[in-house]
């Protein structure tokens, strides 16, 4: 048997995170909001290339690379450094790496771009460094990088509660055809939380065992995104975007996360692609993408 060469590089997709439902159910004494969310992930996303190198480096390209802040503030580097410190504490030596991020998703748009990048970086670095963390150390690292990073690290349909750390996989969610849209207007998450009318909304509750798209549409129609009314007040284009998705035949539309990205669920990927093409012609200055979610 031919011996496989050692892994010296890794390629990872940082998949867009979609909040199919997002209920704000409370607020902790430290100011963190308690959430109850149904989450899935898309085929589309950013891409990371990680390789062993002579020295550490980080580069960025892609259609939304210019919208990123200073490279030293990027969550990918915080993930790299945090993982390296924890591995060093466990006696594991890690060499220099070159990381390249292809930024394909709009920045600060409610689809977990930075968190997904950090989670993908951790997956790739663990492969390149041929290492692993103890479960408790891994959980601590993920949560230290942000409330969305643990769910992005899982990367499959799930329910997330608490501040995002209480995760339950959803084994029966089907793949869904989506159109993602964003008016490319920034939305401040703190401003949205401040504008919420209430923070003690009912939770998502028990989910029926569903494996068909029609059943999930019925289920999701009874749920909501509690952040959407406040976000729409700050960015009225969100309502316009949802109306456009509905007009193209979306079975259900909703804002994801804290916005301003909205999604429309379509019957087939062909219908989603057709709708995305029409929407781009209507608003060529906005972001539209047809994609599919990952099935459980």
From TrEMBL:
Q: What class of enzyme is it?
A: transferase
What sequence ranges are listed for the domain GHMP kinase C-terminal? Answer: 208-282
The UniProt record lists the GHMP kinase N-terminal domain at 74-155
Pfam family name, one: GHMP_kinases_C
One GO MF term attached to the UniProt entry? 4-(cytidine 5'-diphospho)-2-C-methyl-D-erythritol kinase activity
Q: According to the UniProt entry, what is the EC number of this protein?
A: 2.7.1.148
Task: Give the matching InterPro entries.
Answer: GHMP_kinase_C_dom, GHMP_kinase_C_sf, GHMP_kinase_N_dom, IspE, Ribosomal_Su5_D2-typ_SF, Ribsml_uS5_D2-typ_fold_subgr
Keywords assigned: ATP-binding, Isoprene biosynthesis, Kinase, Nucleotide-binding, Transferase
Gene Ontology BP, a term: terpenoid biosynthetic process
The record's SUPFAM superfamilies line, in alphabetical order, gives: GHMP Kinase, C-terminal domain, Ribosomal protein S5 domain 2-like
Q: Which residues form the active site?
A: 17, 148
The organism's superkingdom is given as Bacteria
Keyword ATP-binding included in the entry's annotation: yes
Pathway(s) the chain acts in: Isoprenoid biosynthesis; isopentenyl diphosphate biosynthesis via DXP pathway; isopentenyl diphosphate from 1-deoxy-D-xylulose 5-phosphate: step 3/6
Which reaction does this enzyme catalyse, per its entry? 4-CDP-2-C-methyl-D-erythritol + ATP = 4-CDP-2-C-methyl-D-erythritol 2-phosphate + ADP + H(+)
Q: List positions binding ATP.
A: 106-116
| Family (UniProt) | Belongs to the GHMP kinase family. IspE subfamily.
- Annotated NCBIfam families: ispE (TIGR00154), PRK14608.1 (NF011202)
Purpose of the protein: Catalyzes the phosphorylation of the position 2 hydroxy group of 4-diphosphocytidyl-2C-methyl-D-erythritol.
Q: What is this protein called?
A: 4-diphosphocytidyl-2-C-methyl-D-erythritol kinase
Which species is the source of this protein? Answer: Endobacterium cereale
């Amino acid at each position: 048997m031919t011996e496989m060469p050692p892994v010296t590089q890794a390629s990872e997709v940082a998949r867009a995170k979609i909040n199919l439902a997002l209920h704000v159910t409370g607020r902790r004494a430290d100011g963190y909001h308690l959430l109850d969310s149904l989450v899935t992930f898309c085929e589309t996303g950013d891409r990371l290339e990680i390789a062993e190198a002579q020295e550490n480096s980080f580069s960025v390209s892609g259609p939304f690379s210019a919208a990123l802040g200073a490279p030293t503030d990027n969550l990918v580097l915080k993930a790299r450094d945090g993982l390296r410190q924890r591995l060093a504490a466990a006696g594991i030596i890690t060499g220099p790496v070159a990381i390249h991020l292809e930024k394909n998703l709009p920045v600060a748009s409610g689809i977990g771009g930075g968190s997904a990048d950090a989670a993908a970086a951790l997956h790739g670095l663990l492969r390149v460094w041929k290492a692993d963390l103890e479960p408790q150390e891994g959980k601590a690292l993920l949560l230290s990088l942000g409330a969305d990073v643990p769910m992005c690290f899982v990367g499959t349909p799930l329910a997330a509660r608490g501040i995002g750390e209480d995760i339950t996989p959803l084994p029966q969610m089907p793949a869904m055809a989506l159109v993602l849209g964003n008016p490319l207007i920034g939305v401040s998450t703190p401003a949205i939380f401040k504008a919420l009318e209430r923070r003690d909304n009912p939770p998502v509750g028990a989910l029926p065992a569903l494996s068909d798209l029609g059943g999930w549409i019925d289920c999701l129609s009874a749920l909501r995104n509690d952040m959407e009314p406040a976000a729409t007040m700050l960015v009225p284009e969100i309502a316009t975007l949802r109306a456009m998705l509905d007009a193209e035949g979306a079975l259900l539309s909703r804002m994801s996360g804290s916005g301003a990205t909205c999604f429309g669920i379509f019957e087939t990927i062909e219908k989603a692609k057709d709708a995305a093409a029409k929407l781009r012609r209507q608003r060529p200055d906005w972001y539209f993408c047809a994609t599919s979610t990952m099935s459980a």
